[in-house]
Amino acid sequence: KTHGNLPKLGLSYLWNPHILTAVSYAYSVSGNLGTRLTAARIDWYGSKVNFLAGISFGQVSPTVLGLELILPGKTLKEGYVGMTKPLPRLRGDLTLVADYQDLSGSKRVALTLNYIFHVGHNGTPK
Fold first, then answer.
1. Which of 33, 82, 100, 113 could form a disulfide with 28 if both were Cys (CB 3.0 to 4.6 A apart)?
2. pTM of the model
């Protein structure tokens, strides 16, 4: 089985009310996880649409097959871009994200569409 602790150190900086950047590094300090993952992201908040983009790369946790067979961790390269459209009249946000992953040669592309409905919120905070 895999086990261990994976602390993550991150830094975010809000350059102005419209641009936020973030970087992080996760490194497993015990067990057999063997994870070393670096990530960076940028968010741009517009008046009608918000945009996001990010990357991550490094070695990820091992794969467990059954109870005894553990395959070593693999190298991950990931990039994503997306946009969010706030829909105040519908009390929610619509988000579209395109994600590319290369996990040691196994490549995947995903397109995700989400709607977040805000419960219990009427208007702006006082």
1. 33
2. 0.77
Per-residue buried b or exposed e for 41-59, using 16+ beta carbons within 10 Å of the residue's own CB = bebebeeeebebbbebbbb
Please count the residues of the chain.
126
Q: Among residues 57, 59, 61, 55, which one has the least CA distance to residue 5?
A: 61
Closest CA to 22 of 45, 39, 46: 39
d(CA 95, CA 116): 8
48 phi and psi, to 5 degrees? -120, -25
